Amino acid sequence: MTAWTPSVELLWWEGCPSTGAALAMLREEVAAAGLDPGGIVVREVATDADSEREEFPGSPTIRVDGRDVQPMRDEPIGLSCRVYRLADGRISPLPDREEVRHTLLDAMKGGD
Known about the structure:
Blueprint: E1 8-12, H1 19-32, E2 41-44, H2 48-54, E3 61-64, E4 67-68, E5 84-85, E6 91-92, H3 97-109
Helix pairs in contact: 1-3
């Protein structure tokens, strides 16, 4: 049985200063999972129409096989900086590494 290679996306908006840090962290986690960091799809969400089409809750947004690493509940869609809640309850401009790792590993197991 071969491992499933999930699709990994980083969606960003130019007004957000966290994109570089999010991409660096995502590349590290993808590599640690044994996947090619060069396979990460980085897409800019530039317009309100793009944000609606993508159901974009803000920048940066990381999706693995289309699943948000921290699904938002009742958050507005639009061009803004995203806020994540870390496992310890703190607010952060980046998702918790553990959430990213868990989402990647889950996707790798379930793709047959």
